[in-house]
């Protein structure tokens, strides 16, 4: 098969461009230590979540005035705990992990959004200034019951 000279040059340029992009992508991913949103890069054995404190007792813990930590476990198709209640003005640090597949921890009305990967603990923080019933949804398709995977944050006046 005859390939004209300019065709060969352009094929070469295309391949070189793809190779350059690939090298830049991999280098930046390694250099900037890309991983799920977590300040500490916390990891957890997904098979032992139910035996690993504090995820053995998912729920809300008050750690200071108007300051809380909330430990959530995602699994098909639910979030534990299903509901927490806090007073308005509270800041909640959410620590979220998964025991099975990738989920998405999202509170659309609170601008909270984190990808939840088995083996990792994702951390995200929000201050709930206004009272209301905030819906936590799963925004990563995780199976047939994905649409039923939700929970509530009740913020009282
Ligand atoms: Cu969990 Cu979708």
Structure description:
The protein has 157 residues and is α+β, with helices and mostly antiparallel strands. It has two domains: 1-35; 46-156, Immunoglobulin-like (Sandwich), CATH 2.60.40. The protein is built from one helix and ten strands. It has one helix spanning 5-31; strands spanning 59-64, 67-75, 78-80, 83-87, 90-98, 103-107, 112-116, 122-128, 132-138, 150-156. The relative contact order is 0.18. The mean pLDDT is 92. Bound molecules: dinuclear copper ion. The site of dinuclear copper ion has 8 residues, from loops. Residues 74, 103, 138, 140-142, 146, 149 line the site of dinuclear copper ion.
Helix/strand layout:
Layout: H1 5-31, E1 59-64, E2 67-75, E3 78-80, E4 83-87, E5 90-98, E6 103-107, E7 112-116, E8 122-128, E9 132-138, E10 150-156
Parallel strand pairs: 2-5, 4-10
Antiparallel strand pairs: 1-2, 2-3, 5-8, 6-7, 6-9, 9-10
Residues 74, 103, 138, 140-142, 146, 149 line the site of dinuclear copper ion (CUA).
User: Sheet bearing the most strands, described?
Assistant: 5 strands, mixed
Please provide the count of β strands. 10
Distance between the termini: 77 Å
Radius of gyration: 22 Å
């Amino acid at each position: 098969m005859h390939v004209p000279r300019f065709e060969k040059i352009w094929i070469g340029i295309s391949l070189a461009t793809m190779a350059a992009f690939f090298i830049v992508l991999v280098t930046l991913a390694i250099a900037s230590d890309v991983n799920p949103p977590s300040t500490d890069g916390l990891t957890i054995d997904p098979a032992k979540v139910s035996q690993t404190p504090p995820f053995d007792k998912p729920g809300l813990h008050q750690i200071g005035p108007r300051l809380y930590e909330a430990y959530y476990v995602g699994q098909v198709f639910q979030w534990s705990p299903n509901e927490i209640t806090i007073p308005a003005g509270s800041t909640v640090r959410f620590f979220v992990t998964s025991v099975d597949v990738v989920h998405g921890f999202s509170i659309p009305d609170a601008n909270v959004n984190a990808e939840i990967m088995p083996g990792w603990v994702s951390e995200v923080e929000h201050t709930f200034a206004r009272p209301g019933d905030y819906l936590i949804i799963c925004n990563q398709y995780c199976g047939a019951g994905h649409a039923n995977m939700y929970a509530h944050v009740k913020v009282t006046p």
